[in-house]
Amino acid sequence: MRRVAPWLALVLLGATMTACCGGQTVSSAASSPAQQAAAPPAQAPPPAQLDGFDAAYTYDQVANLVAFGPRPAGSDANHRQQDYIIAQLKSYGCPVEEDDFHSQTPIGDVAMKDIVVKIPGASPDIVMFATHYDTKTLANFVGADDGASSTAVMLELARILCARKNQVTLWIAFFDGEEAINWDWADPDNTYGSRELAADMALSGDLPRLKAMVLADMIGISNLQIKRETDSTTWLTDLVWSTAARLGYGNVFVNQKLEITDDHDAFLKRGVAACDVIDFEGASPIWHTVNDTLDKIDPRSLGITGHVFLESFYALEQKIH
Ligand SMILES: [Zn+2]
C-alpha cells in the first residue's frame, strides 16, 4: 500500500535512499532480527472475550508465516506459503479456490496466485474480507506486520466462519502481488492480485453480488491506531467503526482520517463498497524495513481487529440479508 499525502515525495525519497544505499548496511546492523532479544508476546485476550476469535493462535500463525522468510510474489517461499495457507484452510473445512494468473511486471512475467475461500450462505449476496500475503522484495524482510498479521487474522476468520451457517455468502480473499516489484509504488506495478480478482468477478458476473469488501493490512503492532481511510466507502467505514466503538475499541478505531492506496481500490473503481483497515502511521518506523519482525506483533491487536471483523460481518448480515 501507499500513503497518499502532500509529503509523500519526501517519504518516497527517504525510502528510496534506504533501498539504494542501505541494503547491506541494514542487514548487518546490530538491530538485525537474529540479534534482537525475543521479548515474550503480550497476553492475548481469551477467545471467550472475542466471540471465539483466538488471538494467541493467530499470533502463532503470524510466527508460522514469518518463518517462511521473505515471501515476494513468485518466490519459492511464497509458493511454500501458498501451500501452507491452502492446507490450513482445508483443515478448517473451508471451500478453497485457487486463481493462478500471470502478471507482466518490471522483472517480466511473474506467476501469481489468489487464494479465495467461498462459503455459500443463505443469500447469494457476497461479503468479502481480504488481505495480501506477499511481502515486499527486500533482503531479510519478513513482513510480520506488512503481510503476515492480516493474513493470520483472515485465517482465523476462516476457521470460525467456515464452521458457521452464514446468512450471506462470505468470501475471504488472500491476494498475491500487492507489493510493487520495483521499490517505488507506481501504477500498474502493484495490487496485481486484487485487480485480477476484481476483473474476474466482473467477467463472471459475480461482481454485482458483492455488497461489501473489507480489507485488512498492517494490523499487528502494539497500540494500534486505525484511522478512517478517506477513499473507502463511508457507510461501510461507519459500520466497521461503530462496531468497534460498541465493543469498546474506540481508542483503536479512531476518527482521524488518512488516505491510503491499497487492494480495496480495484473494487472501489468498479463501484463496490469497500473499506481499508490499516494502521500505516503507527507502523511507519518499521514499514518496509528489516525491523518488521515478529517481536513487533501484539496478539491483543490481532484479537481486537479479529473481534471487530467478526462483529462487522454479523452486522453486515443483518444489513444485507
Ligand atoms: Zn507493504
Describe this structure in words.
- A six-stranded mixed β-sheet has the order 2-3-5-4-6-10, sandwiched between helices.
- The longest helix is centred in the C-terminal third of the chain and has 22 residues, at 299-320.
- It is of the alpha/beta class.
- It is built from ten helices and ten strands.
- The site of zinc ion (ZN) has 5 residues, from loops.
In whole angstroms, the N-to-C terminal distance is 32 Å
The hetero molecules present are: zinc ion
Radius of gyration: 18 Å
Structural class: alpha/beta
Round the mean pLDDT to the nearest integer and report it. Answer: 90
The multimeric state of the shown protein is single chain
Number of continuous helical runs: 10
Residue stretches low in confidence (pLDDT < 50, at least 5 long) are 6-36
Order of helices and strands: EHHHHEEEHEHEEHEEHEHH
Determine the fraction of residues in helical runs and give it as a percent range: 25-40%
Going across the major beta sheet, what is the strand order? 2-3-5-4-6-10
**Backbone shape:** globular
| Largest sheet entry | 6 strands, mixed
The total strand number stands at 10
